[in-house]
Amino acid sequence: MELISQRTKKIMEECKARAKDAGLSFDNETLEYIVTNKDMVELSPKVMIPTLYDYWVHDVEVLKGHGKYKLYPNNPYETVINSRPAISFYNDNNPDWMNIMIFYHVLAHIDFFQNNKMFERTWNDDFVGQALADKRLIASLRSEYGRWVDYTIEFTRNIDNLVGYFDYLAMINYNNELDPEAAVAFYFDVFLQDIAKVPDHELYKEIDRYNSLLSGNRDSGNAAFFADVKIRFPEFQAKYEKYASVKKVNVVDVMQFVHDYSPFLNKEENSWMKLILNIVRNTSVYFQPQIRTKIINEGWASYWHDNLFRTDPRIAGHEVGYSILNAGVTSLRRVGLNPYAIGLRLIEHVEKLSDAGRISREFELITGIDKRNNYNKNTGKGKESIFKLRKHFSDFTLINSFVSQDFVDEYDLFVVGQKYDQTRNVIQYYVKSKKAADYKQMLIDSLYHPPRITVDTEKTNDNNLYLVHHFEGKQLVQQFIPDTLLGIEYLWGAQVQLETTDIVQKKSIENEGDPLYEFRKVIYTIKDKKVTKTNL
Known about the structure:
By secondary structure, this protein is an alpha+beta fold. About 50% of the residues lie in helices and about 15% in strands. It contains 23 helices and eleven strands. Helix 5 (about 125-145) runs antiparallel to helix 13 (about 270-290). The radius of gyration is 28 Å and the shape is globular.
């Protein structure tokens, strides 16, 4: 691995100037390295972060990568990481004309990293430098505690998808001054809903009454409101005092809760393990936005490498080669999903909709096909709209907002089904649906969506950690539950319980139309490394 030559760096700087003229925005300082296929294989398990901490799984993945490469040789063109400065890697087999196209692709990625709100918590971080410090810390801990360091890393990595990324992101610009007084929050959020159990319309009337009283003098209005509350609900004061006396536990996610409240980790002799939890959790949080913006990020980069390279004089003589390469990257697959292709088409679709003034309620109310096809306000706001996409959207919001029947029809998209042909002993593919709702759901189902597991603080104490899996139609992978609970039990230092839902086949079907499966709530309990399962 080595820095690109000064001649190639000059080409990159020319690409930067053209990209900024087109509207992209990114830091001037970047680092570019030339790498071999072997380097790519060895860096991939570390998410292309050369300074990431060492862990035995990385070595296994490198061996697996070498084996795959022998069977299926390939030349990955580039990869880029979100760091300060941004670092990108280029295959040593790339010719100059190809690097120009790839430079535009990479610069669009960097623009996305440094402007999309999902990455806001990473804008001021030098992750490569932090990773190097973490690597040195783990190396020093390993020299002192040996294999227990690797056990702790492994147990923590088992739950590194249970990080409250969106809660963490929301804290950035949250104004604590907007929080109501403690008594007000308790009255509306807890007392009326959970204790008095008033119907919704009464709750809304109370909110209106409170706001109207405060519209005059805030202090006197607040006093008058609670004077009336104490008359209507004599038990309110006692309930509030009891509620206020209980120590509030801050729960961001499972990993953070274990870090902060584990009686085992809070012992002085085990405090070093908290350092490892912090490293693994911070690494997971750092990469969460990249996992959640794969389609829009690759679509954005593909859009700009196509627009910028086709208008670059340096494409002369390489039009055919570029067309073949670009088609391989951005072509739509009939079976399977290509994030480059879907992201690119969605961005182009939004640009065309905005240019025609079709992102409006007026257009949505039109039902006639001819009227919809001929609707065009010529607003010229297409570029402005896609830059708003780049700033505010993730994969989910992009797909949920803009995968419409018009989009599916325009690109002849469909959901593919499979069936087994017994006569020929083959799997047959067929067009299952061309409905936008089905295609949208297929895309959404393909997105990263870890299970939502929270801590029930009322059932949790030093001797028991009670976790609740919020069932969303998919059960947990049962074969992984025991090993994962084993790791959590080690980190908590006591019994752990997991409340979840199993999907089980019914033993008997009374009517032909009855569902074949039912949902059953269960609790997994691990104590002294033994896992038991009971029905609720």
